[in-house]
Amino acid sequence: MNPLTALLDAQQMKESDRLTVASGIAGVALMENAGRPVAQEIQKRWARCPVVVLCGPGSNGGDGFVAARRLAEADWPVRIALLVPRNSLRGDAAYHAALWRGPVEPMTPAALDGAALVVDAIFGAGLSRALEGSAAQTLAAAAARKLTIVAVDVPSGLMGDTGADMGAVPAALTITCFRKKPGHLLQPGRRLCGELVVADIGTPESVFEQVSPNTFENDPALWTHALPALQVDGNKYTRGHALVWGGYPTMGAARMAARAAARSGAGLTTIAVPEVALPVYAAALTSIMVSALAAPGDLERLLADRRYSGLLIGPGAGVGDATRTHTLEMLNTRRATVLDADALSSFHDDPHLLFGAIAGPCVITPHEGEFVRLFDVAGDKLCRASERCRCRDKGQRYGNRRSRWPRHRQCQCAGNSCHRWRGGCTRRHPARPFGSRDGAIPCIRCRCLAARRRGGGIWPRAAG
To answer: Is 127 a domain residue?
Structure first.
């Protein structure tokens, strides 16, 4: 894994700070290193203008005091609005507050008068409650006045672990330290953060190894090593033979999936269809071979051909006993299988039957509704597994399977689900997290907007 693509949750970030201080870097120096880039990034992007820095009671507020001092030293007109009495600050935040020689006033909407730019340094990624009181009122007023907002770590009110919105207002720029958090990439957090900058604050790379994250921003380095290398003497017979189950009467999705298999590199692609649908499929497909299934047992006989190296069932297959039976027949081959759409929904009342049948390489691609039906979880979109997904050290069970999932990493439900059947999961969601059998949970940052249409989850697109 590329360590620069790692995502740290609030607890891991807190631990990284502790380890950094233990390595010999003073906490006040670490805070100075965190606040200085905020001022620098502002000066890179905007001309000198009146600034109000909104400071909270903790480390984020301390970063705000540093940023304010640095801007003032560069002759920017800066004021600070503080959420709590100044004499209540403690630790490193109190140290940097004492270095500030400019005005400090209570945090109210009136503190924004005359400002053109607002630095949101109230709360960081560890906030787990709704934004309220004067902090919420002041930020809402800044948004209503259309002031430019720069957030420190995350926009206040954004949960760094999940991307959930607890009252945050959108920022034009967010500066975070050391590594990104899951909430920077997961919606609605990605939208609320605006431009994102990761600042180097001097944290030793050895700290990363000790924290051992298992959530990563998607990057080709995560998976290019697993792509099969093309051989100079290869041909269509050596590049794999994909078999796609084609449904009836809904036939478009299966045809698109078959074309996608061919376009992505399969040497041969066959689509198996009910005999009644053969004329439609044959007329619509050119390089894709079509095999008619006329009688019960035909699919099983087709699967007996070992030349089929990759299988797909689900798009347009229909929900019911027939699809369930065909899915189990495919899984019984122990060949690489992709389960999508109706192949998943057909097991919503008995997911253990599906999980128990998966013995070979398998990837599932549920959308939001299919994921909820299959895993019987509820809650916020990326917090579905709060109660079901227990940590491995407690050794709790789900059904008859021992859980090996991290402790309440709610944004990791795609990865948590993979442990249930030792497979992979690509979840069709605006942030599109997915999980792998080794427990790594990559999150895609730049999802193609063209995917937000019917069939967009099937057709292969150029990376970009």
So the answer is: yes
Residue 36: domain span: 3-214
- The reply to whether 169 and 244 lie within a common domain is no
Is residue 125 annotated as involved in ligand binding?
yes
167 is in an annotated binding site: no
What are the pLDDT digits (tens) for 421-445? 555 666 555 555 555 555 556 665 5
Indicate which CATH number applies to the domain containing 144: 3.40.50.10260
Q: Is 63 annotated as a binding residue?
A: yes
Question: Is 247 flagged in the annotation as binding?
Answer: no
Q: Has 62 been labeled as part of a binding site?
A: yes
Question: 420 and 317 in one domain?
Answer: yes
Annotated binding residue 70: no
> Which one has a higher pLDDT value, 430 or 114?
114
* Same-domain check for residues 187 and 248: no
Tell me if 223 is assigned to some domain: no
Give this prediction's pTM. 0.78
Instruction: Indicate the residue type of 398.
Output: Y
